[in-house]
Amino acid sequence: MLEFRITNDDPETSARAGELETPHGIVRTPAFMPVGTAGTVKGMAAWELERLAPEMVLANTYHLLLRPGVDRIEKMGGLHRLMAWQGPILTDSGGYQVFSLAARRELDDDGVTFRSHLDGSAQRLTPENVVETQARYGVDVAMVLDECLPYPVEMAAARESVARSIDWARRALVHAEQIRAGSTGWRGGLFAIQQGSVDKELRRECTNELAGHDFDGFAIGGLAVGEPSEVLHEAVAMATPMLPSDRPRYLMGVGYPSDIIQAVACGVDLFDCVLPTRSARTGKVFTATGEINIKNARFADDFAPLDEACSCPTCAAYSRAALRHLFIAKEVTSVVLLTLHNLTFFLNLMREAREAIMAGRYGRFRQRIDEIRNST
Amino acid sequence: MLEFRITNDDPETSARAGELETPHGIVRTPAFMPVGTAGTVKGMAAWELERLAPEMVLANTYHLLLRPGVDRIEKMGGLHRLMAWQGPILTDSGGYQVFSLAARRELDDDGVTFRSHLDGSAQRLTPENVVETQARYGVDVAMVLDECLPYPVEMAAARESVARSIDWARRALVHAEQIRAGSTGWRGGLFAIQQGSVDKELRRECTNELAGHDFDGFAIGGLAVGEPSEVLHEAVAMATPMLPSDRPRYLMGVGYPSDIIQAVACGVDLFDCVLPTRSARTGKVFTATGEINIKNARFADDFAPLDEACSCPTCAAYSRAALRHLFIAKEVTSVVLLTLHNLTFFLNLMREAREAIMAGRYGRFRQRIDEIRNST
């Protein structure tokens, strides 16, 4: 199993700082994972990603499975080679994309059959083959196949789905242990996923079923699927403490800086979200004093950097006026520049959060972030 | 006037190595200028461009005039600030884009009136105002407004057009000298443009009319507009020796590596072309052993770098298989990576050409490049 050490507990909140040892290095938590959907963090050359130095990056099993395919990735020497990234990689199971992107989806107790959204080819995911795929990618952390429910959902459907996800998780673990005991050389971890929508008892039952097994970590699934922010915060506050405290906790698909800061206070260790990268492509920029959209006409003659407090190369070289022009002119360069800035913002936020925990002042840190949010 | 020194003449060919002093530094020639149409070399953050270290970059007066506009660029502190590039910049006059992109174009003896292809707004270029615009951009080298004729063209039309271009060039020079003598601080150079289609006498007459004036350099215009490669080579061989040998010679819009190598042998010093950057966006890659298209299925399992002989960061980090995947998946990152490689190829080619001239072995260098071309 992957070693996970909690090095600091915040005295006022449930926030903790930790270190997760993976085959490609130590992930210092709490950490935010930039998303590299199809084998690259959109717009970031490998050396830019290295300079950003995220603790771990996320890639999508589903997208990579359809293209370039697991055979080709394995032949290439693994996903790290495709991405030209030598740090830790976590992949999701592909389940979420099957339920949101794929066509003609048919679910049964042994897995899910669907058509590729790219070429219509028939595909099948099972608890076993998604672990095998991720192992062949050579990832540091693999996720179990689960069924991600929409919000809101009927209780009967939620119960049935959770039972299936628990069964799949156990099967995935058996398979992962077989692979790790074999000759492939794969030594990555496997995280289980807690489901149960926003129902406390269902999440508790699910957690109890999963917690007794040797998963390397536990994710909170089924959130950040469209529910209001208050519902998300309540669900995180309810769900997180149920998870084993000695294992990393990963809140999938979250999110906004304020949501992350809140979740860290509940004891969450890992996050991923397309927000910093996708926002860059719509002109949305995160700054120490709030969010702005660079398309806004008021930036046309604003010669200040995006964020006075930022140390990123974009802020060192370009004014808001220049970035607005490049964005309006649809220059690819603007996507590169804004992505780099937004990722710097998220990664620095996590570094500051971690330092605050280590210094035992996370409560004050969270309060300061809240004040910024409320003032904008 | 800008100082231009020829430091080496090749003994076998008419190739020469030189140094052009501009307000933003020395341009070592022969040199290839990457094209930064709307204020950025597409996909290249400022620090990537700095690492590539081109001697000079080109930007388009027309595009920048329409957006973000000369007032805004001037207010920003000039085009160098917009581009976040502190090296030399040359801008074209905008004439070429007016004749190729703008709508409802009306030419008269004092200039050209047209509608913006972006918003339909009425615009007018005159010999004087294009110099003024480029001076307000703060460029190192400005170009005179000229009329770029299509190929082929009727002789009568060509004669009339050349007479107009000569008149405009003289008016531009008078205006540039007024600006340089004034208080704006602009000290950039002004290049005239030789026209005359593929007619030797007309190009000679045009050159004779221009050469007696204090232009900082001379461009060969009206080529690379769709004529066959042999016609281009013949025209360059015919046109270049007419131009004053003590001033930089600039072959506009050229081109393919083999065209450049040929033109350098005729005594051309400066080049610009969208080829390395535009090609990157269609998957076309330049290598020491010829051109390839990364989309090609044969690269799907090719784990070699794009070019074994290349020192660029793309070739250091990514395999052809990885780059093909990223390109097919329409990842912006692939545009960045291929652009960086292609520009490295062009800039290294020019560095090697210059070294060959300085070592008095340009003839052999050209022969080697020709052999590569003929073998692919």
Name the chain pair with the biggest interface and residue counts per chain. A-B, 43 and 43 residues
H/I helix tally of chain A:
15
Percent of residues of chain A in beta strands? Answer: 15-25%
Quaternary arrangement of the chains shown?
Answer: homodimer
**Termini of chain A, distance in Å?**
44 Å
Report the radius of gyration of chain A as a whole number of Å: 20 Å
Shape of chain A: globular
- Number of DSSP E strands of chain A: 16
Strand order of the largest sheet of chain A: 4-14-13-12-11-10
* Approximate helicity band of chain A: 40-55%
Mean pLDDT of chain A: 96
Main beta sheet of chain A, described? 6 strands, parallel
Give me the secondary-structure category of chain A: alpha/beta
Can you tell me the residue ranges of chain A where pLDDT is under 50 for at least 5 consecutive residues?
none
